[in-house]
Amino acid sequence: MTTATTLGDAIFSLNMTRGEDFLYKSSGAIVAAIVVVVIVIVTLVLILLKLYNRRMRTRRELEPKSPKPPVPPPLDPNSNGPQQPATVTFSPADIQVESR
Fold first, then answer.
1. What is the pLDDT of residues 71-84, one digit of tens each?
2. What share of the chain is helix, strand, coil (3-state, %, to 5)?
3. What span, in angstroms and rounded, lies between the C-alpha atoms of 14 and 20?
4. Taking the model in full, what pTM does it have?
5. How far is CA 49 from the centre of its chain?
6. What is the mean pLDDT of residues 40-48?
7. Could you tell me how far CA 46 lies from the centroid of its own chain?
8. Which of 45, 63, 90, 98 is the most exposed place for a label (fewest CB within 10 A)?
């Protein structure tokens, strides 16, 4: 026994096959377009960062250098010799010895 298909059903199934085939063929082009767009965006971001870095570097190089901080005055105004660095002293309470 054979089943008869109507002309509308045959056209509908034929259109679905062509539509799916078109989607499969165009999916590669869609993926390629997305990859190209991502590459273009990344390239633009890198170029902008490079220009920003160059601009900031030239701005840092061209701005006037800040003077060195002033030297603090000596503690004893009567001393003419060089200032000695502060010394650190330990009291016996600071030193901890292990007991066995």
1. 666 666 565 555 55
2. 55, 0, 45
3. 10
4. 0.44
5. 10
6. 98
7. 11
8. 98
